[in-house]
Amino acid sequence: MANYNVLYRCRYDMAKTWCFLCEQCLKKIKNEYQESYQYGGTWKAVKKK
Ligand SMILES: [Zn+2]
If you measure from the C-alpha of residue 34 to the centroid of ligand 1, how many angstroms do you get, rounded to a whole number? Predict the structure, then answer.
């Protein structure tokens, strides 16, 4: 995972904690864990001034 400005918070496979995925990983997880997949919102990286 490198240089992504936006991350997707999600939970799957009955995990108790949220994890952050890039768009590619999110699509994979969505397909693999259709039953347990939970979406927790989008997280944008804060740009440093
Ligand atoms: Zn990724």
Answer: 18
Residue 12 neighbours by CB distance under 10 Å:
19
User: How far apart are the CA of 48 and the centre of ligand 1, in A?
Assistant: 22
Q: Which domain holds residue 10?
A: 6-44
Distance 10 CA to ligand 1 centre (A): 12
* 49 residues of the chain, pLDDT tens digit each: 556 689 999 999 999 999 999 999 999 999 999 999 999 999 887 766 6
Which helix (DSSP H) or strand (DSSP E) does residue 39 occupy? strand 38-44
